[in-house]
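Sequence, please.
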């Protein structure tokens, strides 16, 4: 090393760093997991990564870091990649899964669609593609959330799935509604006749002035996520009680597109603007009664919501009228087989502690996905089969026009051949739709039983952000929806 340093010293300034550790991830197609490493690498916001290298054969990915950080990184990576893939055929179940007692309410929802397979197959015969929502699964999730002792009010985030029947089930289960546009407000008000307007929270982002006017006329709770409305349209808000969405600075979630806090995102009033916000509110006689933050979507760590609650409750000194702290939504659901579910009782217990420290403050939670994702499946008939190179394609009657999540986020949805559910899954295929884009893929490298034209594939966990984000692209109507 000394001689190397001397040699290099003739060409540049060479310095020896260390002690270092090198941590390598090994596996086929390792690049495909890079987007999942975000949480593990958060540690390195303050610590250095000296070197990152990726083998050209895409088999290994290596970090060189300070030796004393090595163990922590390995642990984080294990938590993220290995625990999360518990029933993976290579890794097998985790120690916790084998030996830890199962906590009530913490496990994944049993697969309702297996029990209701005959009904689904009948429906799939009449429609070449269809979204089916299971009312009982929604009710189960609603009841689970309502059992949380620490949460004073649960609001359903309508954007996840605005189906009228779902809104009615959720609302009759005792849950309020969170809306982000005039369209959602009007839809909720027309679907839920007689709904108390205090049950609705409006949380728009960069919406035009007339949407705030409409919301205020309706008497729903209005959230400001920027100081612009107070600075420019203060007369609208004079003598009103409002909520303010705060950017707590830390975004989390399953993909960059859904992380909604931090400087690179457009949401919320940043902490450094809060003094100005307080001044503007005082000048226009606006009472800030609620503080709100939503850091992202698809999160499994209870700390996300307790940290948010800590930050928001910590701001009460500056905003003494605050009586509600809304910690947002974002509750993740397991997507890959064996992935551990969010531990809702643990989240409840952690939030209860915050509440104990801050008597007189209500805690609100606004999940979307958690309530509807697992209740929905997309059924699609197989149209054509193809083999090209070493890839086999199974084509189905709908694609990214019905479900854009795989194309947009690389999201994983379990896919089974419902017609042949008990046959061994022995063929590796890509499942694609009929849309003219290479991104029109619903799943890659999936094992299915040998599949034929006319079989029905089931794409699971599509109740949230499925139909809600669909389009008529290629003038192909998205799959119709049915609530059973
Ligand atoms: N509250 C606010 C202010 C939100 O912006 C959102 C979601 C929620 C609550 C509900 O989040 P959830 O509990 O559903 O995670 N299209 C993406 C998700 C986008 C979420 C946008 N905001 C996806 O398919 O994963």
């Amino acid at each position: 090393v000394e001689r190397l340093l001397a040699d290099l010293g003739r060409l540049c300034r060479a310095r020896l760093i260390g002690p270092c550790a090198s941590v390598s991830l090994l596996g086929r197609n390792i690049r495909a997991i890079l987007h999942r490493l975000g949480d593990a690498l958060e540690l390195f916001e303050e610590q250095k990564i000296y070197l990152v290298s990726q083998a050209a054969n895409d088999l290994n990915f290596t970090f060189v870091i300070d030796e004393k950080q090595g163990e922590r990184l390995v642990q984080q990576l294990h938590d993220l990649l290995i625990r999360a893939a518990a029933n993976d055929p290579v890794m097998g179940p985790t120690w916790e899964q084998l030996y830890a007692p199962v906590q009530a309410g913490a496990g994944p929802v049993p697969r309702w669609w297996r029990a209701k397979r005959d009904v689904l197959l009948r429906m799939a015969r009449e429609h070449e593609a269809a979204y089916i929502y299971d009312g009982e699964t929604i009710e189960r999730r609603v009841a689970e959330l309502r059992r949380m002792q620490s949460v004073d009010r649960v609001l359903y985030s309508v954007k996840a799935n605005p189906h009228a029947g779902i809104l009615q089930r959720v609302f009759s289960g005792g849950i309020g509604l969170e809306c982000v546009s005039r369209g959602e407000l009007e839809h909720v008000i027309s679907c839920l006749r007689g709904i108390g307007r205090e049950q609705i929270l409006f949380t728009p982002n960069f919406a035009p002035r007339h949407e705030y006017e409409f919301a205020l006329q309706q008497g729903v709770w209005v959230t400001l996520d920027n100081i612009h409305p107070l600075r420019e349209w203060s007369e609208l808000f004079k003598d009103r009680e409002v909520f303010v969405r705060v950017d707590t600075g830390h975004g989390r979630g399953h993909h960059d597109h859904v992380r909604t806090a931090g400087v690179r995102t457009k949401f919320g009033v940043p902490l450094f603007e809060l003094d100005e916000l307080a001044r503007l509110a005082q000048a226009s006689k606006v009472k800030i009664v609620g503080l709100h933050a939503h850091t992202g979507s698809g999160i499994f760590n209870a700390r996300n919501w307790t940290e948010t609650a800590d930050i928001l409750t910590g701001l009460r000194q500056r905003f003494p009228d605050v009586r509600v702290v809304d910690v947002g939504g974002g509750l993740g659901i397991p997507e890959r087989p064996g992935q551990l579910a969010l531990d809702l009782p643990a989240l409840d217990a952690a939030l209860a502690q915050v509440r104990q420290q801050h008597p007189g403050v209500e805690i609100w939670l606004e999940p979307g996905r958690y309530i509807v994702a697992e209740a929905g499946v997309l059924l699609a008939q197989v149209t054509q089969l193809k083999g090209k190179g070493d890839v086999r394609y199974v084509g189905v009657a709908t694609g990214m026009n019905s479900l854009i999540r795989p194309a947009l986020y690389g999201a994983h949805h379990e896919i089974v051949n419902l017609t042949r559910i008990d046959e061994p899954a022995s063929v590796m295929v890509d499942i694609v739709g009929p849309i003219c884009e290479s991104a029109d893929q619903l799943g890659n490298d999936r094992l299915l039983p040998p599949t034929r034209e006319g079989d029905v594939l089931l794409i699971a966990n599509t109740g949230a952000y499925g139909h809600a984000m669909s389009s008529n692209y290629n003038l192909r109507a998205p799959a119709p929806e049915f609530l059973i």
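The longest strand covers residues 376-388.
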